[in-house]
Specification:
With about 325 residues, the protein is of the alpha+beta class. The chain has nine helices and eleven strands. Strands 1, 2, 3, 4, 5, 6, 7, 8, 9, 10 and 11 form an eleven-stranded mixed beta sheet that branches. It is elongated, with a radius of gyration of 31 Å.
Length: about 325
């Protein structure tokens, strides 16, 4: 079967129902004890899938975070001046200059040494950032110092950002496929999203399966289509249509025929991803807000077919 799979150029969604008949006739779903990623749980009523953020976090974010942190600490230690030792050095040099002049045998470098040492000290005989930068300018090394600062920022700022993501970004809520009601729903950062199964939008690209639902806007004022990004199939990236076909067929088989079409055991539950400090909490009044999102469907299908939906990636 040939679907809209243009890689990064696949920007607009199509209803998953557009290909149901082809999935049913061309893909054979084999029930298994473990139905494989991205399926997390299966029971009589609901099948859930998870995003691949935990995989990208463990294999990309954490290694890069540690690498950037190491270089940041190393460069900061090398770049940050020791004002106390600089102050001691400047006073020693000024004493040396006085001794040389008292001997009436100053070297040709005495004036230069005095100029540099004096530049390091303020009126109270202390080294500050202002005097340090002034001394660097006199020495002709201010440009190198600022270049080192920019290079430090290149490693430090991404490092800080990645640490913030590591600690603050919760484990994504799963996407719920409710067979009894034939609906799909989930939540992201307090916002509830839902759609009827036959109206659910689908974007397939290198990061995997992206599901479009009708999500609440900020402060629950109105609704807009938004994509749940990066439901992967055990790969970090570079998904092809062949990678995403079978998980989609499993979801459709469950919604058509129930758990027996997907699993060979009474129920299935995968262990949650590790190394998360917290999970995205289920919003208050959740069931009522799911119903409200379903009623607010409006032009959901037309909108995601003609506009690029924003995504809940991070």
């Amino acid at each position: 079967m040939k679907r809209r799979f243009w890689g990064i150029f696949t920007t607009k969604a199509q209803p998953f129902s557009k290909w149901w008949q082809e999935f049913r006739s061309e893909v054979i779903v084999i029930p298994m004890e473990d139905p494989l990623d991205p399926i997390v749980s299966v029971d009589d009523k609901v099948l859930t899938v998870r995003t691949g953020y935990h995989n990208r976090r463990d294999t990309i974010l954490i290694p890069l975070m540690l690498l950037f942190s190491f270089f940041s600490i190393y460069m900061l230690n090398d770049w940050l001046p020791d004002f106390e030792s600089k102050q001691e050095y400047a006073h020693e040099m000024l004493e040396y200059v006085e001794q040389q002049r008292a001997l009436r045998d100053p070297s040709y470098r005495t004036d230069d040494i005095e100029k540099r040492a004096s530049a390091l000290l303020n009126e109270n005989g202390e080294v500050t950032w202002a005097t340090y930068l002034r001394a660097k300018e006199i020495e002709g090394e201010l440009g190198y110092f600022l270049t080192g600062f920019l290079l430090l920022c290149f490693f430090l700022l991404p490092s800080i950002a990645m640490w913030l993501i590591f600690f603050l970004k919760p484990r994504d809520a799963e996407v719920y496929f409710d067979r009894q009601r034939q609906i799909v729903y989930s939540w992201r950062h307090g916002r509830v999203g839902a759609a009827y199964f036959d109206k659910m939008g689908l974007i397939e690209n290198q990061v995997g399966i992206n599901i479009v639902l009708q999500f609440e806007n900020k402060k629950q004022k109105g609704y807009r289509p938004m994509a749940i990004v990066g439901i992967d199939t055990g790969k970090l990236a570079f998904h092809t249509e062949a990678d995403t076909t079978y998980p989609l067929a499993q979801i459709l088989a469950f919604m058509d025929h129930g758990k027996e079409a997907v699993i060979t055991v009474p129920s299935f539950k995968r262990k949650p991803a590790k190394l998360f400090w917290r999970v995205d909490p289920k919003p208050d009044n959740f069931e009522a807000r799911v119903d409200a999102a379903l009623k607010a469907e409006g032009d959901l299908v037309h909108h995601y077919q003609t506009h690029r939906p924003k995504g809940h990636a991070i």
